[in-house]
Give the backbone structure.
Amino acid sequence: MTTVGSKAIVLFSGGQDSAVCLAWALENFSAVETVGFDYRQRHRIELDCRIAFRDALTARFPVWGERLGPDHKLDAAVLSSLGETAMTHDTAIRMSKEGLPNTFVPGRNLLFLTLAGALAYRRDADVLVGGMCETDFSGYPDCRRDTLDAQEAALVLGMDRPLKIATPLMTLDKAQTWAMAHELGGSVLIDLIVEETHTCYLGDRSRRHDWGYGCGECPACELRARGWARWREQVTA
């Protein structure tokens, strides 16, 4: 049911999860804008996919298109200057001494939400929507709901204005995320996610799989592929 009078800003990276969150927001809010971040990520191709997906979504879902407002792209390059990670530098993906994969960019979601909160203040929005998930994830501490609750409280206090951080995928695994996409937009939305979004950490769009484009070997590709396979098994069972 549409929440009339509320405006949401979706943290839209161009990947599968944020694409599903965008569809969810368009189904549930009367006005939606998107924000993306250029932090000199290796998979910068996702920045192009953001625009292609928005355009395709508007064309295929006119009602959603009427609710979809402007896109904003913010420079968050400071993240890549703070130290080397496999998401921002050409280095092999491995486990770090902290017990996390070196794809973890410390403070990334905290910075993204702070910038998105400032944008929401300017754009008169009262909800931020993010694809953070603590079910199928790599253990990133800034994806946990308790982290986001603390961030939400800090933003409300710091800006003296009501603001919610919505995480519709928080308790879903990747198979359930595919299922949510199908529930929201049927096979049309599924096809758009397969063709127009990007998840691969290495930025590889030379190889096309049933679940989309990617190297097929990095953690993001493996997670997306496993989720696709489980969802397809459930659909055809």
Observations:
- The helical segments are 16-28, 45-60, 62-67, 78-81, 108-123, 145-159, 174-196, 219-236.
- The domain at 3-236 is CATH 3.40.50.620 (Rossmann fold).
- The chain is about 45% helix and 15% strand.
- The chain has a mean pLDDT of 88.
